[in-house]
Amino acid sequence: MNQVPEFSIVVPVYNEAGAVGALADEIAEALDGRAYEMIFVDDGSSDHTQAVLAELKSRHPALRAISHRRNAGQSRAIRTGVLHARAPVIGTLDGDGQNDPADLPALYRELTRPDAPGDLALVMGERRRRQDSIWRRLSSSLANAVRQFLLKDGARDSGCGAKAFRREVFVELPYFDHMHRYMPALVRAEGYSVAFMPVNHRPRASGVSKYTNAGRLMNALADLRGVAWLARRRRGFGGSEEI
């Protein structure tokens, strides 16, 4: 842990005591031989997620566990993890285990490859063969279609938790609840480019979803208006340099 990591994996979790152990094991296996850290952010869980994470630290020296004093939502948990991260490149996964840690090395390589565009700041996963209910898939398809029409962000799957991005760019983005769903639009609004790559998706092994279709729709309508406003009000400055 004294070595500065090249890759920090941030995992927001809320009442996922049954999933975090296997997920930590899989992250360690996927990144074996690399300089990495994994940061699990417990977002005020009411089950024994925090206790499980504390026990896992003895098995995984690269694991860091951070706990919110009260539940603040997935976007806040991701931001907390990024602010604590030590690496210049961040990877994220959802805490329910449906994202596959085996995709992390490919996401990292795509972002950091030598011939990548100089302004590439985010590689966004796109889930193939989603392992969700038909109603969940239909509601996501509708939300993605509306979002693309209004924001034109190029993302076909804005809800995918598997991502790799540059830490320095993330901390420039405006924070608001649910902002993690709008990262392609927010990153592009700051003048950076975004790439997309297919990733695996798995059935939920334990726990329950923290979102309802109706709740997500209501939040999305408000968020879309806000993100569109932010994009319109951005004034680019072409970068800066010291003189």
Q: Any overview of this molecule?
A:
The protein has eight helices and seven strands; from the N terminus they run βαβαβαβαβαβααβα. It is globular, with a radius of gyration of 17 Å. A seven-stranded mixed sheet has the order 3-2-1-4-6-5-7, with helices on both faces. It is of the alpha/beta class and 243 residues long. Helix 1 (20-30) links the parallel strand 1 (7-13) and strand 2 (36-42).
Q: What summary fits the major beta sheet? A: 7 strands, mixed
Distance between the termini: 37 Å
Structural class of the secondary elements?
alpha/beta
User: Per DSSP, what share of the residues sits in E-state strands of 2 or more residues?
Assistant: 15-25%
Counting DSSP H or I runs of 4 or more residues, the number of helices is 8
Task: Please count the beta strands (DSSP E, at least 2 residues each).
Answer: 7
**Silhouette:** globular
Tell me, rounded to a whole number, the average pLDDT: 88
Instruction: Evaluate the radius of gyration.
Output: 17 Å
- Following the backbone from N to C, one meets helices and strands in this order, namely EHEHEHEHEHEHHEH
Poorly predicted parts: none
Helix content: 25-40%
Give the SSE map.
Blueprint: E1 7-13, H1 20-30, E2 36-42, H2 49-59, E3 63-67, H3 74-84, E4 89-92, H4 104-112, E5 120-127, H5 134-151, E6 163-166, H6 167-170, H7 183-189, E7 193-199, H8 213-233
Parallel strand pairs: 1-2, 1-4, 2-3, 5-7
Antiparallel strand pairs: 4-6, 5-6
